[in-house]
């Protein structure tokens, strides 16, 4: 019985390690979410058209600090609810679901932003991706602006 238990634990540990999300996979899927063409028009820019800092609210789904996601010259910054509540952050991503398996990924999130008239807007995205030869490709995309 001990031998069976040891073998079972070893197989279970191996299976879990295969399905685990790597930082590279998390960064790759998250980068695809940030790079969605439909969202680009809503990103904050300065007077010269250079993109400003983008933020991801660490609530609901939290990401490891080691992720590497950029937009323009800026690394996307992870923030908490207190930082958003202070009022200096007017646009940010909030992820409700973010799952990665060996060959597929799913994300459900909103991008909260201020429009040109300084009104709060929400852009909702549901995306499914497939991992094809080491890169993540969008398989299904649903969006709506609220």
Residues in helix, %: 25-40%
Q: Report how far the terminal alpha carbons are from each other.
A: 58 Å
Round the mean pLDDT to the nearest integer and report it: 87
**Major beta-sheet overview:** 6 strands, mixed
Radius of gyration, CA atoms, in whole angstroms: 18 Å
- Poorly predicted regions are 8-19
CATH overall fold name: Nuclear Transport Factor 2, Chain: A
| Helix/sheet category | alpha/beta
Helix-strand topology string: HHHEEEEHEEEE
What spatial form do the alpha-carbon principal axes imply? Answer: globular
| Number of helical elements | 4
CATH class: Alpha Beta
The CATH architecture can be given as: Roll
The total count of strands amounts to 8
Please indicate the percent range of residues in DSSP E strands (runs of 2 or more): 35-45%
Strand arrangement within the widest β-sheet reads 4-1-5-6-7-8
